[in-house]
Structure formats: C-alpha cells, structure tokens
Amino acid sequence: MTKKRKRYPNLDEKLERPWCFYCERDFDDLKILISHQKAKHFKCDRCGRRLNTAGGLNVHMSQVHKEQLTHVENAIQGRGGLDLEIFGMEGVPHEVVNQHQQVVREKHFLEQEERRRLTGNPTSGASYNTGGVFKSKRPRVKEVLDEIVNRSGSWEGDHMIPTTHELPHGSIPPMDVPTPAYGPPPGAFGLPARPGGPGPGQDLSASLDDMIADAKGAASTAAVEAPKPKKEKPVNLKYFDENVSPEEKMANMARYAWT
Amino acid sequence: MSTQFELAQNPVDVISAVKFARNDHNRLLVSSWDRNAYLYDTHAEPGGTLIRKFEHPAPVMDICFGRDDNEAFSCCLDWNVRRIDLTTGDLTILSQHEKGVRNVVFSATHNLLISSSWDETLHLHNLSTPGQHAIVKVESKPFSISVSATKLVVAMSSRAVSIYELATLQEASTISGHAQPPVWQNRESSMKYMTRAVCCMPNDAGYASSSIEGRVAVEWFDPSEESQARKYAFKCHRQTVDGADVVYPVHALAFHPVHGTFASGGGDCVVALWDAVGKRRIRQYQRFPSSISTVDFSADGRMMAVGVSPGYENATEDVPDGPTKVFIRTLTENEAQAKKK
Lengths: 259, 341
Hints:
The structure holds two protein chains of two kinds.
Chain A (H helix, E strand, L loop, with lengths): L10 H6 L13 H11 L13 H11 L29 H26 L6 H5 L14 H20 L39 H22 L2 H5 L2 E3 L8 H6 L8
Chain B lengths: L3 E3 L8 E6 L6 E6 L3 E6 L7 E7 L4 E6 L5 E6 L3 E6 L5 E6 L4 E7 L4 E6 L3 E6 L7 E4 L4 E6 L3 E6 L3 E6 H8 L3 E3 L5 E4 L6 E6 L5 E6 L3 E6 L4 H5 L2 E4 L2 E4 L2 E4 L2 E6 L6 E5 L4 E5 L4 E5 L6 E7 L5 E7 L15 E6 L11
Parallel strand pairs in B: 13-17
Antiparallel strand pairs in B: 1-31, 2-3, 3-4, 4-5, 6-7, 7-8, 8-9, 10-11, 11-12, 12-13, 14-15, 15-16, 16-18, 19-20, 20-21, 21-22, 23-24, 25-26, 26-27, 27-28, 29-30, 30-31
C-alpha cells in the first residue's frame, strides 16, 4: 500500500519531492523519476532502448546507430545539453537546485495565500513559519450554513418558549446569556469578524439573525467569486483579428505590393 | 536527432507551403513570399539539391503537385492560378481570380484542381477539359482548403466551414463559368476564433482544423449524432510566461498518410504529433528557430518537411529577424505511430 497523499502537503514535503532536471516535473519517489527519465529523455528514438543517462545514450547512438546525439529529447529550453551527467537527482548543478526550490517555495506560498483568500481559514503553514505561536485550545468549529441556521433555530426555540411562559426557577433571562453553551463567540466561524459584536445590552436573537444573514451573504458572494480565479489567468494572444488572416495583412504591405 | 537536416539553399522570404511529390518521396516543392517556387531533390546530396526555381511576378501563396511528379500548380498574389511544367520550367496561367489566391489543391481521384481566393470564390479546373474553369461562390473568404478522397473542406472567415462532395464539384466543373454545386454540409467552426488551417484525414473520415488561438479541433464527416458527438477540440501551442498564457496561432496541420496521426505547427516554433483517435500527444519536437508556417509528410510517411519563417504573423514593415528554412526529418518506423493502449 502506498501512503495516502496529503491534500495540502507542507513546504518541506514539497521540497523533498524528487524532480526531473530536464523537464522540471516532480514525482512521488525517486524510482518513478528514474523510469520517467529513461522513458522520456534517455530513450533511443531509433530502437527504443532505454539508457540510464544522456552520456549512455550518446555512446549507444554512436556505436549502434552511428549517429550523433545532439540534445536530450523533450527537455525544456536550455536543459537539453549533453555535458551534464544526470541520473535521478544526481548530478543536478547546485544553482539549478536552488532555482527549482525557489520556484517551489514561491508556488507554495502563492497557493497557500490563494487558499486562505478563498476559504478564509488561517494558513496551516502559520505553524510552519512562526513555530506554532497561535494555536487555539478550543477545538475548531466547522459548520456549514445549514448547520448554523439549524442551530440558531434550536437556540431561538429553546429561548423563546420560556419567555412566553413563566421562567424556570433560578434561570437567567436569555438577554443576558453571553452564548457560552452555544459554541464559540461570533467571528470564530472562520468568517471575517464583524465590526461591533453583540454588546451586552443587545438582543441576541437579532444579532444571531444578523450573523446568519452575514453568513448567507458571505456564502453567496463566495459562490459568485469562486469560479472566477479559473478565468482570471490572463491570456495573451499572439495574433488576433476577427476576420483578416495574417496573409492578407502581409499582402497589404509595401514590400509585397503587386499592381 | 541527426536524422533531421535543413535544406542547403533556402527561400529568402516567408515560406508559404512545402509539398512532397506522390511518387518520388525525395521530390519537394516549396513556395515562398520571395516570389519563387522551388523544386528540390531532398536526398541527392547532403542538404538536398535545388533542381529548379520558378519565378512568379508576386509572392507565391501555395503550391501542389498535379497528375504526376512533373506537373505542379501554384497560386499567387497576382490573382493567377498557374500550371508549372517542372521539366521545362514553363508557366501557364489557368485562371484569374479577382483577389489574391490563397490555396490550391489537386484531387487525383477526381482529376480536379481547386483554387480558393480572398474574392470568396473557388475555381474548379477539370484537367480532362483544359482551357475552361467553373467559378463557385462560397460563403465568405476562404483561409484554408483540404481534400480527402471524396470531400473538399473549405475553412473560411466568420468561422464558417463548407464541405463539398468532390463528385458534385467534378460535375460542376464540366461547364465553364459560374456554377452553384450544392454544398454537402455547412458547419460552424467548433472553435471561437478565426480558423487558420484545415486538413482532411487520409481515411476520409473527418478533418482537423486549427485556430489563431492555440487550439485544434477534430471532427468527423458522418452527420449522424454519434459521430458528431465524437468531435472535440484541445488547447496546444501555448506557453506560460509569468503566470500569463501566451497563446500562439496554429499555422500548419498535416496528417500522416500511413498512421493517420497528425502534426501541428505553431507560432511558438514547435511541431507536435497527435493521435486524433486516442486523443493523445505522441511527441513534441525540439523547438525550431522560427515560427512554423507549413508542414507536410511524404506519401510513404517516412519524411516530414517543416517550413519555418520568422515572426511573419505580425505583418510588420520591418523584416523580422530569424532564419527562414526548410527542415527535412526522416521518421523512424513508429515515430508517428499512435501509442498502444
């Protein structure tokens, strides 16, 4: 059995992943990376033999097929050279390793920030960065909107009935109950804190209604905003015109003019 | 690898088309904006030999072989369609359009030469009745045309695509002058942007088309619902630069005559091979030094010619830097074959 992959691996886990020098792809483990390199970068395109290194392929090409290898197949720009002897993660120059780690780091923090923005949850990496300065002792409450509505309904049910009838002995009027038994104070739902929380004199049921309305509002705006990031990626068309082809534009140029 | 080389004597301006002969697999025609058509023997000596050069009065937009390896047809910005006798070097004007002529294709099965022009017409030349041609008005400006064994696909501006049956075109071509052969099918491109190239499958089942927005669509002729449901389009020829997608036009498409896979060439200087049925990329070649303007396979599928021209799609008055070259690549037995599984 393989280990179940974490949905959001932390930075260290990401940095530890083996990756391919030639195409910058990363892999679950070194074995897979090596078989990837043999299949994609060190495979002879004459006979399909998989070699271990670019040098090995070069020797094979020149001895078996009498041909000269000029570059490594499927490599990204600038990485196709034959001068480096790469096998798995071995032989990768330090500066390239650093550059890759930098990219992984930047990507990690970007993703984290994006996730924080979308979910409103504090970044899990906060404990990574600050060494666990902030850690709530109370278990985190996760509720969906329906649960909040249900809970508020039951709260109102519980508290409205006694007020219409006579109060039980020794009970405190609900107005003064600072919601101890009903979960964390407002703001702990992972929603942005509202300005001016429920003051001591305020009607709590009203403030709860506010909260529900807020939550609904937040949920609906979140629903509207959520699909956006997919389309936000700017697109840069190298050629654009509704109805005139590049050739027609060229044909109109002075140097191709024909009369 | 070393099985790829460039021609020694290249055109000096943008290459508009490269075409292999049907019988002699070393015979290659190249047309160029430098106002010439070129005939090469690609393997006579290293780097190939330029057999002959055919001068035209204006840039040559497209070229194709005719009934045999010694006959060719060219279309030119001077509005004319010409027959070229490759042995004597004689050029004969077959017909004149009212604007630049974009493409010329020859259907051996129907002995029919078809030219398409920005004047929104096709000219049909039935080679068994020389000296006359039929004019067919099409929906809008044709940008690319391609023939299969039985069909002609015309990709036009406004994302229109018309498919004709060659048999009806052949019939229409017997009468000189304006003709209205029935369109077999009118379609709208399945892509949002301008169509750039179209190419029919060698098995006559369908065609691929490409757009200026890094995308290729594959669809089938068969009008039945099941076959139409099989059509699809995919993104390609893109690069991510600083988080933004740079999207290049896909200028060239060519089907492999044996394996039925196809090559696409784009403004990103890359040629990729695709498996149309398996919906997979087979391989992508090392970047070429300039934009890919045209691609063709030899009839036996053993060779691929790639015409590269620098930044021509931008149509700037300054001549863009970069090499203009024709590359010839010898393919191995299964290089263009669809992967198993």
